[in-house]
Amino acid sequence: MNKIAERIQHQISFLEKHADHLVIDTDTHLTDPSCLHPDFQQKLNNNPYYYQGRPINEAELLLEMKQAAVDMALIWQNPACTYYTNDPQANFEQLLQANQYIADCAHRYPEKFIPAGWTDPKNCGLENALRIIETCVLEYGMPIIKLNPAQNEFRMDDPMVFTIVDKIIALKAIPAFHYGADTPFTPAVALENLAKRYPNHPIIAVHMGGGGAAYIEADEQYTESRKLGLKYPNIKFALSAKRDTHMESDLIAYQTAGAPFSNNLFCASDAPYGRISWNFGGFRQMFKSLLDQKNHPQLHCCPTENLFNDAAVAQYMGGNFVQLVLEPLKNIQGLITREKSQLV
């Protein structure tokens, strides 16, 4: 068994053993400090405070996870720190290097980091984007591959996206998208088109309609997203970069709907764009208030007694994501093992 298959097996065993109590941040971005472009490095050196896209490395993420009592994190690259030019081949190499760092972090800390890949057909070219997917899944053992249509300026339901998703699914991984109200490239109708096109496959929509949009501008998409998720059970949402009041409404609506919908929400921070300590401190307090149903301003008149319980909270805090990610991890381990055996 090669080192990637060994890491995957280690993670599968760890996730299965601790599934009922793991707290997992399902949206974090890491950057290799040794590979920062000089312009980005200078900006970092000159500014000790937060700015949009300010990078963090694995050590910094681990420190904040410990401080926030978060057991594991889904990690992917930070697109604000991946330096692009007008050369698709150079962009391909930069993005592949960023993905390699994510894979290396997961290899060093298999009980802390679940690695996810990132591809970009707009800036790398479609063929290079497909090559990145193959490398991320088969060489890095990544169970999830993300695209950011908002930042890279292509429609979430563009035909080239279907080609990308077809490839991800063919390799037994899960497609994920930045999905927010911050640009016209990720509207609710585009997510619905994806959900209808791939009804038997999960699709992760990160931010559940939030992202970089202002609260008032995002309000309509927040509501549309909640309705979409309760219509299509294959849509999974990472709750990050979104107004807390809407996240609470999402949790109430999905818990009321029950399975399979109550299995489809995951807690997240969007670190370093959001603080893990702030977000998970907030999630814990929010769930504490939801558990105290008789004193909750929305739930005290709910006809369902004890709508939330400790087991349900544990699912949203990590258990739901464990259930989702185990299957692609097992499938990809099988693909890697078979591929290696055929080469012997």
TrEMBL record:
GO terms for biological process: secondary metabolic process. Residues 24-241 form the Amidohydrolase-related domain. GO terms for molecular function: carboxy-lyase activity; hydrolase activity. GO terms for cellular component: cytoplasm. The keyword Lyase applies. The lineage of its organism: Bacteria, Pseudomonadati, Bacteroidota, Cytophagia, Cytophagales. It comes from the Bacteria. InterPro entries: ACMSD (IPR032465), Amidohydro-rel (IPR006680), Metal_Hydrolase (IPR032466). PANTHER family: 2-AMINO-3-CARBOXYLMUCONATE-6-SEMIALDEHYDE DECARBOXYLASE, ISO-OROTATE DECARBOXYLASE (EUROFUNG). Transmembrane segments: none annotated. Gene3D superfamilies: Metal-dependent hydrolases. This is Amidohydrolase-related domain-containing protein. Keywords: Lyase. Pfam families: Amidohydro_2.
